[in-house]
Write a structure and sequence with these properties.
By secondary structure, the protein is of the alpha+beta class. Strands 10-9-8-11-12 form a 5-stranded antiparallel sheet. Strands 4-7-5-6 form a 4-stranded antiparallel sheet, with no helix packed on it. A hairpin with a 2-residue loop joins β8 and β9. The chain is globular. It starts with a helix and ends in a 7-residue tail after the last helix.
Length: about 325
């Protein structure tokens, strides 16, 4: 880092938003604390704000002192669905990650699938059902299939219905008024981080369960990240291409992460399926995107600094 850059950073005040009120609050607190520490080590003045469902309080915290940029480490509803982005746009504050429209669309899994289908991104067949429709005796599609919330992250509320299992009881599924029901793609879990308009790498997530659920994702020892993924070059390149295409089509900025399933029993890349995009991926030093950034030679501190330096506000 040049002396000029260090001096400039010492005069730049960054507010880190973390916590929130979604099901991913605890994950956000970890991401935000890690980002705040790294930004301080990189020379920025940092204020940490634990976001509550208190708009007046949040705006007051962002007004005195007013930051030069906002690092958005919130996850889930209210934090990455366009809600907080709209507040920051209203206040004219530059912020990291995607803007209002891209955030809202990326958080809505069915809308993302429909939009990406228009540019040729393959995803599992699925349908959206009201929660009450899950209470019947018949299955909504042939098992095995996945039930997931239409607008949650971190695999919150994901359920696998296996062959031979009774139809799900909707009363037991409490993750929103609507559910996305998708065919289950048996295969390997892959993920690709995108920074700017460039794919970082492909990671395979190796885990024992059939589904990479919340427990597997956040419990030590339940999953292993294999980087780079031990897959054919053509599959890796196609996953990267689809991840960049998803990032660009939705209008994401900063970093995003796209998740895939690869059925290696199918020829070529025909078994590669896009699952979802996370436009506000986890940002602990051991999270998937920071791991991929380190793999291509970028430190965690450099990554969070890059996000701050590329913070933007459409209204200005």
């Amino acid at each position: 880092m040049s002396l000029e850059s260090l001096v400039a950073r010492k005069h730049k005040h960054v507010a880190v938003l973390m916590g929130g009120w979604s099901a991913e609050r605890e994950v956000s607190l970890v991401s935000g604390a890690a980002a705040a520490r790294a930004l301080e080590e990189e020379g920025y003045q940092v204020t940490v704000i634990d976001v509550q469902r208190d708009l007046a309080g949040l705006m007051a915290a962002l007004s005195d002192p007013r930051p030069d940029a906002v690092f958005n480490a919130l996850h889930g509803r209210g934090g990455e669905d366009g809600t907080i982005q709209g507040v920051l746009e209203f206040m004219g504050l530059p912020y990291t990650h995607s803007g209002v429209l891209a955030s809202a669309v990326a958080m809505d899994k069915p809308m993302t699938k429909r939009l990406l289908a228009t540019v040729g991104v393959r995803s599992p067949q699925g349908l959206v059902l009201e929660r009450g429709a899950l209470t019947g005796q018949s299955h909504p599609m042939p098992a095995p299939y996945i039930i997931k919330p239409v607008d949650e992250g971190s695999t919150v509320g994901v359920v696998l219905v296996r062959e031979g299992q009774n139809a799900p009881a909707g009363e037991a599924w409490t993750f929103g008024a609507r559910a996305l029901v998708e065919e289950f793609i048996k295969g390997r879990e892959l993920t690709v981080g995108v920074m700017g308009d460039k794919a970082l790498a492909v990671t395979e997530i190796d885990f024992a369960a059939d589904v990479f659920d919340y427990t597997a994702k956040y419990t030590a020892g339940h999953a292993r990240h294999v980087l780079p993924a031990p897959i054919p070059d053509e599959v890796a390149e196609e996953a990267k291409r689809m991840a960049v295409l998803a990032h660009q089509t939705l209008g994401c900025r900063g970093v995003s992460r796209s998740d895939f399933r690869w059925d290696e029993s199918k020829p070529g890349t025909t078994g590669l399926y896009f699952l979802e995009i996370n436009n506000q991926p986890g940002m602990t030093p051991l999270s998937l995107v920071p791991e991929q950034a380190a793999h291509v030679g970028m430190s965690y501190g450099a990554l969070v600094s890059w996000l701050v330096e590329h913070a933007a506000c459409a209204i200005g």
